[in-house]
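Section 5: illustrative case.
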């Protein structure tokens, strides 16, 4: 496979075309942003960690029956993926209150929910990714009813899988964001990434934050937290 021109440069990844129209190469950067791009910085080594972690998680999810865009890890930062048309929906699952949930509803962080919650936001940076319900997504024709049902089913499977994997690492999965896309034949697959950029991960014993909140909230030792959580994952798989 041959890497061709840059197709898109996002906040955390570059996406390149290849000689195969159905295949893209994603290249993970160390760049970090928060608050819809308002806060900018970099987390050294993040790209390598996010690339490897996403690939581990996606391969595990395939075995659980969730189709993903993953094809092959090409290098520390680069992975070949199936090209999809991204559904403009950020799918967020929460097991514990935190972040925008706590802010929106005026509750403390750390409330453990009896059941996970799912929510969607409209993937639109100009509008600041507004919250949206099922009917809104359908009214805006962001996807079909069937696609929405598939996305929800897969999202809860992703949650069950990730919760289990992190539990074995002494890490509590608080919440996460995933994205889905459509292959040219219409198949819905999990795309984008699963990493400490997109998941809230708390040490199960101490509650120490091992994710991007360290960067968002200027808690310090962000690089170390990414390394620690990746090490724990790798060790749990040995
Ligand atoms: P952002 O666009 O939010 O700045 P990134 O820097 O992560 O985010 O850029 C990666 C972009 O590539 C995202 O817009 C994401 O939706 C998109 N993407 C992820 N996986 C695929 C895929 N398999 N095919 C096409 N686009 C993808
Ligand atoms: N998230 C993400 N990208 C976004 C918004 C949220 O990856 O654009 C992740 C975030 O890391 C967290 C979960 O989704 O794990 C829930 O985030 P929340 O809605 O609480 O928003 P935030 O507090 O990040 O603004």
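Designed sequence:
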């Amino acid at each position: 496979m041959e890497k061709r021109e840059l197709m898109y440069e996002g906040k955390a990844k570059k996406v390149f075309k290849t000689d195969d129209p159905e295949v893209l190469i994603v290249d993970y950067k160390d760049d970090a942003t928060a608050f819809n791009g308002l806060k900018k910085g970099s987390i050294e080594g993040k790209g390598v960690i996010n690339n490897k972690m996403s690939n581990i998680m996606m391969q595990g999810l395939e075995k659980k029956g969730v189709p993903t865009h993953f094809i092959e890890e090409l290098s520390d930062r680069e992975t070949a993926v199936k090209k999809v048309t991204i559904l403009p929906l950020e799918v967020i699952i929460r097991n514990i209150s935190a972040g925008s949930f706590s802010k929106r509803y005026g509750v403390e962080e750390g409330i453990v929910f009896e059941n996970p919650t799912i929510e969607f936001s409209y993937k639109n940076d100009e509008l600041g990714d507004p919250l949206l319900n099922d009917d809104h997504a359908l009214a805006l024709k962001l996807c079909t009813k069937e696609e929405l049902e598939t996305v929800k089913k897969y999202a809860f499977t992703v949650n069950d899988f990730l919760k289990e994997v992190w539990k074995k690492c002494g890490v509590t999965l608080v919440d996460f964001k995933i994205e889905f896309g459509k292959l040219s034949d219409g198949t819905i697959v999990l795309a984008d990434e699963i990493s400490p950029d997109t998941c809230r991960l708390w040490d199960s014993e101490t509650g120490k934050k091992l994710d991007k909140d360290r960067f968002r909230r200027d808690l310090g030792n962000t690089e170390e937290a990414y390394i620690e959580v990746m090490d724990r994952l790798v060790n749990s798989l040995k």
